[in-house]
Write a structure and sequence with these properties.
Elements lengths: L5 H21 L4 H26 L2 E4 L10 E4 L1 H24 L5 H26 L3 H20 L3 H32 L4 H7 L4 H18 L8 H7 L2 H23 L9 H24 L3 H16 L2 H4 L6 H33 L15 H15 L5 H15 L3 H25 L14 H19 L2 H8 L13
Antiparallel strand pairs: 1-2
Helix pairs in contact: 1-2, 1-4, 2-3, 3-4, 3-10, 3-14, 3-18, 3-19, 4-5, 4-10, 5-6, 5-10, 6-8, 6-9, 8-10, 9-10, 9-12, 10-12, 10-14, 11-12, 11-17, 12-14, 12-17, 14-15, 14-16, 14-18, 14-19, 15-17, 15-18, 16-17, 16-18
């Protein structure tokens, strides 16, 4: 039997979830089963593409045989495969979680589920298309598909989430407008939107620099980097638990993915050192501000949402840490590994929070006092995921932060190492604050509503994966090397 063309995996990774979205809309009564089946099938093209990139290196495919600039090119390297895998993990486990979360026990739950599944699959397809596109305008289109699916997913929760969804929509549209204006400027001065071609033309230009600034500002809005984060906590805190998980784990990172494409091999050959430091300090401010607000939060999901604001700050450290030749590859690898570990841990935490909300009728910290013994599996999942969020060994979070600290010290930028360590201590502070409430003694613990085992086991599975990433780092790290814009060791001295 002839081997499957690797390009087929790229096309299937986009077409399959989009077709599932249509099917789940048409056959709404069977949407839960269609969604879970589609999630299981999606492992095939993602695994096939990962295998192809692992053995053949960077791949590309011209749809319909038309070459750029007339045609649409799909491309896959280590970064895009990592994001596809991350999406498949979170959305796959999230589909199992949502199968139980939107069980048609009541008419309202049934109607929510019927609205959820088509949007969920559309979001998945949009994310896959974004990670495989190699054209600035097609990236804009996929970015809009992701936004237009994510916003109504937030609103699925009902009246409480509508205000948060509208705020998310306004910020998303403003960010998209900034990005699109930048795309127009790039086309005016470069005559192409094809990323590999733009990389070959990269050079100092006021117009292209202005376009890069506009596009970066729009993406930072979508990433919710401080001080542009104001939309994220209410959106993530009020959305259904599986939606909160995928927003925090994957959707906000789609903006960061585009930033990496633009800054490293897209519109600029080498980021300006002063600007790179400024972006790093934005990340440091995000870590501090998000952590302080997580310490003050009175709701579990709001605490986790502000934790996302803080954790996203670590991603911005890639800019100053790669500005020096020494340790640049370690910084690149540490950042990408952090995205993977954070996604698994944060999705697990949101799943645990959703189980707690379902079990006790709310997620207020006072309302959850003494509930650890009544929901032990979800509590254990939260605690396990927290190990990675804090950055304790042997978790994936520890592995990623250790690589970033190595890069900072090797490049003579010791202050970023202090930021990373300080962020871990702040994370420990707000997580232990929650644990002190969870394990507090109360004479009469609140009554518990039965929770599906699928919800708790989904949370625990992702929590264990966040730990396992720290023990089996070889394969992901080698994948990260493929198509990386930097050379050198991922481990300083290695």
């Amino acid at each position: 039997m002839a081997p499957i063309d690797p390009s087929a995996w790229m096309v299937l990774a986009i077409v399959w979830p989009l077709a599932s979205a249509i099917l789940s809309y048409v056959a709404s009564r069977a949407a839960r089963w269609i969604g879970v089946a589609a999630a299981l099938v999606m492992t095939i093209p993602v695994a096939g593409l990962a295998h192809s990139v692992w053995h053949a290196g960077v791949l590309s495919h011209n749809i319909g045989g038309w070459r750029p600039p007339l045609g649409i090119e799909l491309a896959a390297d280590g970064l895009s495969v990592l994001m596809l895998t991350l999406t498949a993990i979170v959305c796959g486990v999230g589909s199992v979680y949502a199968f139980a979360y939107f069980a048609p026990q009541t008419r309202a739950a049934q109607e929510q589920g019927q609205r959820f599944w088509p949007l969920w699959m559309l979001l998945w397809g949009g994310l896959n298309a974004l990670f495989l596109s190699a054209d600035l305008f097609n990236l804009y289109v996929t970015l809009e598909v992701v936004g237009l699916a994510a916003v109504p997913l937030v609103a699925v929760a009902g009246d409480k989430a509508l205000t948060a969804a509208m705020r998310y929509l306004m910020v998303s549209l403003l960010g998209s407008l900034c990005y699109l204006l930048g795309v127009g400027i790039v086309y005016l001065y470069r005559g192409t939107l094809h990323l590999p071609t733009l990389a070959a033309l990269a050079g100092d230009s006021l117009a292209v620099g202005s376009a890069l600034a506009l596009m970066s500002a729009g993406l930072l809005m979508k990433m919710a980097i401080f001080p542009l984060h104001f939309w994220l906590p209410p959106a993530h805190a009020n959305a259904p638990a599986p939606v909160s998980a995928v927003l925090s784990a994957v959707v906000v990172k789609a903006g960061f993915y585009l930033l990496l494409r633009l800054w490293f091999g897209g519109l600029t050959a080498a980021p300006d050192a002063d600007l790179a430091q400024a972006l790093g300090w934005m990340g440091a401010a995000a870590i501090l501000w998000g952590s302080l607000n997580a310490l003050r939060a009175q709701r579990l999901k709001m605490l986790v949402a502000y934790s996302t604001v803080a954790q996203l700050g670590y991603l911005m450290l890639v800019f100053p840490l790669t500005a020096r030749d020494t340790g640049a590859m370690a910084a690149w690898g540490g950042t990408l590994y952090f995205m993977l570990a954070h996604a698994c841990a944060k999705a697990s935490v949101f799943f645990s929070a959703g189980a707690s909300l379902r079990a006790f009728g709310g997620d207020g910290l006072e309302q959850l006092r003494g509930t650890a013994t009544r929901l032990p599996l979800a509590t254990f999942a939260f605690a396990t995921a927290a190990v990675s969020l804090i950055g304790l060994p042997p978790s994936g979070g520890f592995m990623a932060k250790w690589m970033l600290i190595q890069a900072a010290l090797a490049g003579g930028q010791w202050w970023w190492a202090l930021v990373i360590v300080g962020g871990g201590l702040l994370a420990a502070a707000y997580i232990f604050r929650f644990f002190s409430t969870l394990f507090a003694y109360v004479p009469e613990p609140p009554a518990k509503t039965p929770v599906s085992g699928l919800m708790e086991w989904s949370a625990l599975g992702l929590a264990f994966l966040s730990i396992l990433l720290g023990l089996t780092a070889a394969a992901p790290i080698e994948l990260i090397r493929i198509g990386a814009p930097f050379a050198g060791p991922l481990w300083i001295g290695g």
